[in-house]
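It is worth pausing here to work through a concrete case rather than discussing structure prediction in the abstract. The textbook approach is simple: state the sequence, then state the predicted structure, then interpret. We follow exactly that order.
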Amino acid sequence: MEIEANRVYEHETYGEVLVMSVHEVYSSYDTDVDDGDVDGVFVRYSTTWDSHGPMIASVRNEPVDEFAPGVVSRGERVEFETL
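Step two, the predicted structure:
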């Protein structure tokens, strides 16, 4: 299953989570050529959120290869209110 940002997922371990981003992490990056050595792909998610976004203390990062197998189902997309 493809993990998408701004979507709620049901996870075996964490329960209901909000995925905020899926991003590459680089061990090194050359801004002159806009390229680098990818160290992994990570999911940034939260176990608690409200209509304005995630609660900071509940934000976690995990390699997508470790996170994805625990996903049970994909729920709705989430849009947040802006202040």
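Step three, interpretation. Residues 7-77 form one domain. The radius of gyration is 14 Å.
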